[in-house]
């Protein structure tokens, strides 16, 4: 099956371009961003050589659903979704902090916890927990980026005192983040999933704090299957991950965890297929709609056409 690995457009009124781990970002008129979400997948800050078919469409579809769901409640930079793989966003000044809400001991938090560390981003965790346990209440554990791109823990106090985010804006950000997460938990549970944690990014535009990035996608949040969760936890059985954590765990079993100068092993075909199915399952559980995979035979031409139409409709 073909996939969308990358794009190489030269769009009207284009004023910039940036290729991230997963997305190709086209700046238009210095004011807007056309974010093309590809099928690339990254793990441990490394872009893997394989792609996951229709992953980009899944991420875009979930973000579109979430932006529409939160419209009127949480202001965002989202303007429209002109293509199944493209978000049209307002260009904002992004705050250099990733806002992570956690309510479950999974992923990085668990890997830190099992070493004996009980402090994460200035928040102390209780003793006696096991992997995938629910925390007493959701906690906010922000990170910032180092010059080499790895997440670096930072406390809320350090964020304000260092001037990374002014105090009034930070209060608004944390309010929005907890509100996003609370509703995200409800949406996930309606679809039979447990929202474990979620990452948000915010920016500023004309003095207003806006949600600036994807919301509750399988790349920016972790989900466990809710059915049987408590029984599995009581028996200390493995939980069923429905997000990228499945790929991370497979890579760790192969001995790769982002070590310096290490090359990740190629994903086995069955891992790619299973990852694709889990991404699609999250889409369907969250949105309540059957996933309709787009054909790949003319995908580049279709995306470019839809981007050009979106640009033509801008002021």
Essential attributes:
alpha+beta; 18 strands; single chain; D-amino Acid Aminotransferase, Chain A, domain 1; 315 residues; 5-stranded antiparallel β-sheet; 4-stranded antiparallel β-sheet
Please give a quick description of this structure.
The protein has 315 residues and is of the alpha+beta class. 32% of the residues lie in helices and 27% in strands. Helix 1 packs parallel to helix 7.
Write the layout of secondary structure elements.
Layout (H helix, E strand, L loop, with lengths): L13 E6 L3 E6 L3 E6 L2 E4 L2 E6 L3 H16 L7 E6 L2 E5 L2 E2 L4 E6 L2 H7 L5 E2 L2 E2 L9 E7 L2 E3 L5 E3 L2 H6 L5 H24 L2 E8 L1 E4 L2 E4 L9 E5 L3 H7 L9 H9 L15 H19 L11 H14 L3
Antiparallel strand pairs: 1-2, 2-3, 3-7, 4-5, 6-7, 8-16, 9-12, 9-15, 10-11, 13-14, 15-18, 16-17
Helix pairs in contact: 1-7
The CATH class of the domain at 94-235: Alpha Beta
Give the N-to-C terminal Cα separation: 39 Å
Q: Uncertain spans, ≥5 residues at pLDDT below 50?
A: none
Instruction: Assign the CATH superfamily of the domain at 94-235.
Output: ATP-grasp fold, B domain
Could you give the order of the helices and strands? EEEEEHEEEEHEEEEEHHEEEEHHHH
What CATH architecture label of the domain at 94-235 applies? 2-Layer Sandwich
CATH third-tier fold name of the domain at 94-235: D-amino Acid Aminotransferase, Chain A, domain 1
Q: What proportion strand? A: 25-35%
Strand order of the largest sheet: 1-2-3-7-6
Largest sheet composition: 5 strands, antiparallel
Structural class: alpha+beta
Mean pLDDT: 95
Number of strands: 18
Count of DSSP H/I helices: 8
Shape: globular
Query: Into which percent range does the helicity of residues fall?
Result: 25-40%
